[in-house]
Design brief:
The complex is a heterodimer of chains A (about 280) and B (about 900). Chain A has about 280 residues and is of the alpha+beta class. Chain A is built from ten helices and 14 strands. In chain A, strand 4 and strand 5 form a beta hairpin. The longest helix of chain A is centred in the C-terminal third of the chain and has 26 residues. Among the domains of chain B are: about 60 residues, Beta-grasp domain (Ubiquitin-like (UB roll), Roll); about 100 residues, [2Fe-2S]-binding domain (DNA polymerase, domain 1), CATH 1.10.150.120; about 190 residues, Aldehyde oxidase/xanthine dehydrogenase, molybdopterin binding domain (Aldehyde Oxidoreductase, domain 4); about 140 residues, Aldehyde Oxidoreductase, domain 4, CATH 3.30.365. In chain B, helix 15 runs parallel beside helix 21. Classes of the chains: A alpha+beta (about 280), B alpha+beta (about 900). The complex binds flavin-adenine dinucleotide and FE2/S2 (inorganic) cluster (2 copies).
């Protein structure tokens, strides 16, 4: 008979994981769909009993999104505007049922190229906190995600939190998702944008695109082109197809062709940035 | 902390309960199997359908993805916890009133999501309602009546169903024509309804099918004895060699070609190969890889192009080509017709495999009782199931009894047998009851599909807009086995020119065998595909001769006295022109609004399109009788023995409505026995939009005959009023009053003392070699108007509104009719914009997309009643009709908005964007 561990504290969980390989279970929204019609005979470490991993907390210079924080927890949390994009992503993950159960940490650990949490977390320059019995390390989200369904998670490690460094209060963000139906849809393209303004201009632009490469990718050339530009409805004009094409390597699949993904990314970036420029310019 | 062996304590619907299932068990499974709370449905086990939605500490979650251990100490509410003291809650009552539950399989999930919403937000907007319910899929309703019900109970909107005033019915106090609530509705709202997977005897064994992982090849089965001996819980592994009768099935009496279990050769991925039977735990512990089968893969024949090349490998080796069937309808001289034309339009189109995606996967159980078999199964066609199973087992038809369970959606996909012969074979050989429920991927991989089509067509008209000629050829990918491929090949040429008067027609079709799942029956049998082509050509011709598309259709619309492509003169009930006319006010307004919006430019364009349709009710030039029985017991209970299967479309309600009026009693006096082959007569299958028309007429005849018998016995006149009470019938005719003593009469086997049956077989005439004859006794007609927004930079299409006008002959139940139309529109929208089944790739409900709550726009339905004298009280079918014009109307709307013709369904964003870019390059747009 397989093992099912459901400790109520982290130490016990990490000890157990050090002793034997276990499959980690959180909200189960990736775990169970991966086992339709197959036996549920993994040795499991269920994290959901560990109260310390819940919730979203202000830790002074950063925000801690506990490993058990769900998409719904995020939407309901009182967070600054730089999280608006991530919250919009949360509202687009599956239906409410999925948002009530699925965790942000689990979304990163599952490492789907189309993980809706990844672009905004990448743009927020979030870090993943990895804990093992013998210590804790932190990796930027973009280093934690190493490929299609692969991460830097080592044996004996679990993700205990996603850490988001604080940004100036006037930082703004957005999330854009393109799918072939309204609800419950895996993204064809999704984009996370975080803009930190300085007066009426962009001072720090961070743009990340998902579902167009094995992992979410930042667009450094575009970010550089945006920095210093005035915040108005022309902001999107900074987007050049080259800056996008240089970084992304989409594939053809049932949801869309590679060429379409690139084309749509450029359009969405232009629109999203112009819209943010207009909004932030008006507010500045 | 290892809780692998501990029980889980939790509260379910207010009661503290312990669950003994292993801690990783899906909560849905534990609720169903341990607590018997089968109101929680399982449609996918993957979070995609939401049918399993329950409240966990008051928040909606998919119970198929919650580990039992995670529910420890928590509060679970299931659908069974909604009704209080045996009375429906307001929410449930609103669902019933609005017809928000059709088949009812999604309903528990919908109710729980709605409960969650209303607990948090007592007066939601429509958008908030959609956001909250967006995680539950419904394949039947198109969601509109669900939204209405939720907003109604919230009081946020006045949503009383509009009064329907029949154009033809004189008797408004009668059952026919009334918005009667679904008679089998309450049990769909409480969770009491028993679907295919909801019950089996406690000692039932479980059957699981090993399916081919390859699309084409050979296989060898290894040592099954040692496989079985190593696994004590496994009772048997059945192979092709265990089939006592004929290992071939198919819906036609001849040409049965599909094995129940494959014999050395497999022809599609998903084909059944072995059936493993054992106790539930032992079967669940298996992996496909555990079974000793060696596969030898060969290059599959994929798609029409590959199947039709001269040197193509044969899909079925004993045939001399991959052609399964051809169809042909030729009238007049099509070349002369084109010579007469001033304008000609032509084009080519492609469509994809479409999956039925009923939310209830195939399921049932069987037991052997002496030398008889009893099969409880979710089906559209109990009598066909009975006959097929008997042939496969090599026993007599009378030895097989089919007892249909509630059917959680069919749409054509549950016409072909699935679990029936497997559970029958296992129960027959093992002597124990055996159950089987397909997983979602298994259902999708193995079941039939809508035929992909490759169509070339052209049409011609005179300068003043009269159609002169139409020529069409459609190739259809019919998959590995015949199924309903010949039906599609027959139906398409009859309908392909559309419901228009055209003197010269040449329509041909061909169904090609390929190494894909069998294409079978799916709402419309190929006509939804062909309508995309012919309705596009009409718009192109209208454009060429400078006529408005609606005016062009009205000018050519077929009317009473006109002749079809098959040379049939329509004598009655041809309300197509009335449907088009009904769209005129919306058409004028929406077209003007679209022009105004598009003048402003920008990436978002508005388009308004129209399409017409027609569809013959019943089988094509083939006898398809229905017999219905009505009886009265000594106690005065009236029973309708109703063999017309209800898969959500409504025969359990409309047949009693018809019977009530024919007999002259209130509808609530009629009990309904559904589908049981031992108790009902053969009412044929629920397909071809035939049940309302054919079985409805049979019901009317049964009712009228029984009434006549009673009047004769009592010796009263035809106007007498019947009062059927306890043990007697009181008849009043003017001042005269007579009483019949029922208890004095001798009961029949059903316990009825008075009974009558009615049989109706719609009159048709065979089609000659050129497809000329009378293929159908009557046709349904309709027209849809679609308003769409298209983002020309992203290629995304959002349907904003559909107006659907349908000539239904007579609206027996307007609420149910609207429900059929909404559901048809939703499926038509899916066909147009998102649905594409790719074997091995989209075998689940997240890669295969069907419309969700947010994708189906408001739908205005307009019911036209041009009575059909053969139909019950003038009625004819709607089931398939409703789907046919949606996709062409959407594509015509896109053309209106952009000037670009979409030629590949589904119009996924990348295809649309490519089409727009190609047109730009060619300088068209
Ligand atoms: C119907 C449906 C729709 C969906 N739609 C979307 C969508 O639109 N966008 C989207 O991005 N995603 C979507 N998802 C997936 C999304 O729900 C998940 O990615 C979710 O966020 C994963 O969290 P979880 O807690 O449920 O993970 P689980 O299923 O519990 O775990 C997921 C994986 O991560 C591992 N894991 C989880 N937590 C940890 C941890 N703390 N440390 C180490 N390993 C861990 C597990 O071992 C497992 O491999 C959808 C899922 C479903 C079922
Ligand atoms: S069964 Fe749980 S979502 Fe489909
Ligand atoms: S009523 Fe919703 S799936 Fe049938």
């Amino acid at each position: 008979m397989s093992v099912y561990l459901r400790p109520d504290n982290l130490e016990e969980a990490l000890d157990a994981l050090q002793r034997r390989p276990l499959t980690v279970l959180a909200g189960g929204t990736d775990y169970y769909p991966g086992r339709v019609g197959r036996p549920l005979d993994d040795d499991l470490l269920d994290l959901t009993g560990i109260a310390a991993l819940r919730g979203i907390a202000d830790e002074g210079d950063r925000w801690r999104i506990g490993a058990l924080a769900t998409w719904t927890d995020l939407v309901r949390a009182d967070l600054p505007a730089c999280f608006d994009g991530l919250k919009d992503a949360a509202r687009e993950v599956g239906g409410v049922q999925i948002q009530n159960a699925g965790t942000i940490a689990g979304n990163l650990c599952n490492a789907s190229p189309a993980a809706d949490g990844a672009p905004n977390l990448a743009a927020l320059e979030a870090e993943v906190e990895l804990s093992a019995a013998d210590g804790v390390r932190r990796l930027p989200v973009t280093e934690f995600l190493t490929g299609n369904r692969t991460t830097a998670l080592g044996p004996g490690e679990i993700v205990t939190a996603v850490l988001v460094p604080k940004l100036p209060d006037n930082a703004a963000s957005a999330f854009l998702k393109l799918g072939a139906r309204r609800y419950l849809v895996i993204s064809i393209v999704m984009i996370g944008i975080v803009l930190v303004p300085d007066g009426a201009a962009v001072s720090d632009a961070r743009i990340a695109v998902g579902a167009c490469s094995p992992v979410t990718r930042r667009l450094p050339a575009l970010e550089t082109a945006l920095n210093g530009r005035p915040l108005d409805g022309t902001l999107g004009e900074a987007v050049s197809a080259d800056a996008v094409h240089a970084v992304l390597s989409p594939i053809d699949d049932v949801r869309g062709s590679a060429g379409y993904r690139l084309d749509a990314t450029v359009t969405m970036l232009r629109r999203g940035l112009s819209e943010m420029g207009r909004r932030m310019g008006a507010g500045a | 902390m290892n809780i692998a062996a501990a029980a889980t304590t939790l509260t379910v619907n207010g009661e503290e309960t312990a669950l003994r299932s292993p801690p990783a068990t899906r909560l849905a499974d534990a609720l169903r199997s341990e607590l018997g709370l089968t109101g929680t449905k399982v449609g996918c086990d993957a979070g995609d359908c939401g049918a399993c939605t329950v409240l966990l500490d008051g928040e909606q979650v998919c119970s198929c993805m919650v580990a039992v251990a995670q529910a420890a100490g928590r509060d679970v509410t299931t659908v069974e916890g909604l009704a209080r003291d045996g009375a429906l809650s307001d929410l449930q009552a609103a669902f019933l009133r609005h017809g928000a539950a059709q088949c009812g399989i999604c309903t528990p999930g919908m109710l729980m999501a709605a409960r969650d919403l209303l607990d948090r937000n007592p007066s939601p907007t429509e958008e908030q309602a959609a956001d909250a319910l967006g995680g539950v899929l419904c394949r039947c309703t198109g969601y509109r009546k669900i939204v209405e019900a939720v907003l109604d109970v919230a009081g946020s909107q006045d949503c009383a169903p509009p009064e329907f005033v029949s154009g033809t019915g004189p008797d408004n106090d009668r059952a026919v024509g009334a918005r009667i609530e679904r008679l089998d509705g309450a049990q769909k709202l409480t969770g009491d309804e028993v679907f295919g997977a909801d019950f089996a005897p406690p000692d039932a064994l479980t059957l699981r099918v090993l399916r081919s992982p390859i699309a084409r090849g050979r296989f060898e089965i290894g040592d099954l004895d040692s496989f079985r001996q190593a696994r004590p819980g496994i009772a048997a592994v059945l192979t092709a060699a265990d089939i006592p009768g004929s290992n071939a099935f198919g819906v036609y009496p001849v040409g049965k070609d599909q094995p129940v279990l494959a014999d050395r050769i497999v022809r599609y991925r998903g084909e059944a190969v072995l059936a493993v039977v054992g106790n539930a735990g032992a079967v669940a512990a298996l992996r496909d890889e555990d079974l000793p089968v060696v596969w030898h893969e060969e290059a599959p024949v994929t798609g029409i192009d590959a199947a039709s090349t001269p040197d193509a490998a044969l899909v079925q080796g004993h045939r001399d080509s991959n052609v399964l069937a051809r169809g042909r309808v030729v009238k007049g001289d099509v070349e002369r017709g084109f010579a007469d034309a001033d304008f000609v339009a032509e084009g080519a189109w492609r469509t994809s495999f479409v999956e039925h995606a009923y939310i209830e996967p195939e399921a049932g159980w069987a037991r052997r009782i002496g030398d008889r078999l009893e099969i409880h199964v979710s089906t559209q066609s109990p009598y066909m199931d009975r006959d097929e199973t008997a042939l496969i087992l090599g026993i007599g038809e009378e030895q097989v009894r089919i007892v249909p369970t509630a059917c959680g959606g069919g749409f054509g996909g549950k016409l072909d047998i699935s679990v029936q012969p497997l559970i029958a074979l296992a129960a027959w050989t093992l002597g124990a009851p055996v159950r089987c429920t397909y997983t979602r991927p298994e259902s999708m991989a193995s079941s039939t599909k809508r035929h992909p089509a490759a169509i070339r067509a052209r049409a011609g008209c005179t300068a003043d807009g009269r159609l002169t000629a139409f020529e069409f050829h459609g190739d259809f990918d019919t998959g590995a086995y015949a199924s309903w491929g010949p039906t599609v090949a027959d139906r398409v040429p009859v309908h392909a020119a559309g419901p228009y008067v055209i003197p010269h027609v040449k329509n041909t079709s061909c169904a090609w065998l390929t190494n894909a799942p069998p294409s079978g029956a799916f709402r419309g049998f190929g006509v939804p595909q062909s309508a995309i082509a012919n309705e596009a050509l009409l718009d192109d011709l209208a454009g060429q001769c400078g006529l408005d598309p609606l005016a062009f259709r009205l000018k050519n619309a077929i009317r009473k006295g006109d002749e079809t492509s098959s040379g049939q003169v329509l004598e009655h009930s041809a309300g197509l022109a009335a449907c088009f006319e009904a769209l005129q006010p919306d058409w004028d307004r929406e077209r003007a609004e679209a022009d105004r919006i598009n003048r402003a430019g920008g990436p978002l364009r508005r388009g308004v399109g129209v399409a017409g349709m027609w569809y013959g009710c019943g089988n094509t030039s083939m006898s398809n009788p229905s017999t219905m029985k009505l009886g009265i017991s000594a106690e005065g209970q009236v029973t309708l023995y109703n063999g017309a299967m209800d898969m959500g479309q409504g025969p359990n309600t409309i047949m009693p409505q018809i019977a009530a009026d024919a007999l002259g009693v209130p509808v609530d006096r009629i009990a309904n026995v559904a589908g049981d082959t031992d108790r009902t007569a053969d009412a044929g299958k629920s397909s071809a939009s035939r049940q309302t028309f054919v079985s409805g007429r049979a019901t009317q005849i049964a009712g009228e005959t029984l009434r006549a018998n009673i009047l004769r016995l009592a010796n009263v006149g035809p106007a007498a009023a019947l009062d059927i009470g306890d043990g007697r019938i009181v008849l009043r005719d003017g001042d005269a009053e007579r009483t019949l003593d029922l208890r004095a009469m001798a009961p029949d086997a059903e316990g009825d003392v008075l009974a009558a049956d009615g049989t109706f077989d719609p009159p048709t005439k065979p089609l000659d070699a050129n497809g000329q004859g009378v293929p159908y006794a009557t046709y349904g007609f309709g027209a849809h108007l679609a308003v769409v927004d298209i983002d020309i930079e992203l290629g995304t299409i959002k349907v904003r509104r559909i107006v659907a006008a349908h000539d239904v002959g007579r609206a027996i139940n307007p609420t149910l009719l609207e429900g059929q139309i909404h559901g048809g529109v939703a499926q038509g929208l899916g066909l147009a914009l998102m649905e594409e089944f790719v074997p091995g790739r989209t075998e689940n409900l997240h890669d295969y997309l069907i419309p969700t709550f947010g994708d189906v726009p408001p739908i205005d339905t307009i019911l036209i009643e041009d009575p059909e004298p053969l139909g019950p009280y003038g009625a004819k079918g709607i089931g398939e009709q409703a789907l046919i014009p949606t996709a062409p109307a959407i594509f015509n709307a896109v053309h209106h908005a952009t000037g670009v013709r979409l030629r590949h369904a589904p119009a996924l964003p990348h295809r649309v964007r490519d089409a727009l870019l190609a047109a730009q390059e060619a300088g068209h747009a």
